[in-house]
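dumping the sequnces here before i forget
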Amino acid sequence: MMVEREDLGLSLSLSFSDSSRPSQLGASPFGFNLYKPSHRDCETFASLDRISEADARPSLRGIDVNRPPPSAADCEEQEEAGVSSPNSTISSVSGKRGEREMVSGGEDNEAERDCSRGGSDEEDGENSRKKLRLSKDQSAVLEESFREHNTLNPKQKLALAKQLGLRPRQVEVWFQNRRARTKLKQTEIDCEFLKRCCENLTEENRRLQKEVQELRALKLSPQFYMHMPPPTTLTVCPNCERVGAAAPPLPSAGGGGRPAHHREPVPMIPWAARPGPVSHGALRPRT
DNA sequence: AAAACTGACCTGATTACCTCA
DNA sequence: ACTGAGGTAATCAGGTCAGTT
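..and the predicted 3d for all of it:
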């Protein structure tokens, strides 16, 4: 069974078989990579938008996030200042706090503190969490970006934020939500898949039980021996030298036309498939 | 009115870096 | 100079809230 990507409704870019992208979410058993990047992986050069939530709140009360925030441009400028710092090692250095601070130092942080949090619930009743609605264009750009990388490094975040006229924090939140919801959808799909596997196996089991019963009945009848294959059709397995009748391959079973005793169990679920064929030498003693 | 969607937020975990004894 | 402990900051996943469609 293969689930169409379009089925997800989120127009996800689930890479079922594409393992070529390193920056996917971490590995899902179904091939959807759910990659959690370590800080070492990403370019953390000026993560200006991470601030104490508590600190951020008070200064933001009264800001309507649905309005293109005056802060957005301001933030970008401030962050750009960080980005364009001659001392920064923006694109090549990974997550060294020294560098982060170099570009995001004191005042910028304060500024970001003011502009990165849309927050402001409680207390101020009239400004309880207004919701921004992203435009189609904004969503499209974000989707496109998500398809390419489902995590953002700070540089990409800033660039996107600037391009879309959003705060970096908004871009960050969008990506976080997107990852979470993508994963949720994938889980639902996986669940559905497992359900169908279970049904198929139950059916197969029923069928095999029936077959066993029939064979037992046949064996008890004297005519059974009349149907025995002549000895010449018995084959010797070249690997283990066991004697077995050449069985026709079962369409649904793994192992194709191999002798029955060499057939691998059918993997119930895709990720259960072994990386390679199990051979007699698979359990070689360590040297 | 109810349900689905979605932007925003909170919390806890993880990791890297810094400071200091 | 080296080292381990504790602190700080950034980022993430998972869960939730609440406004919008």
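The longest strand of chain A covers residues 234-236.
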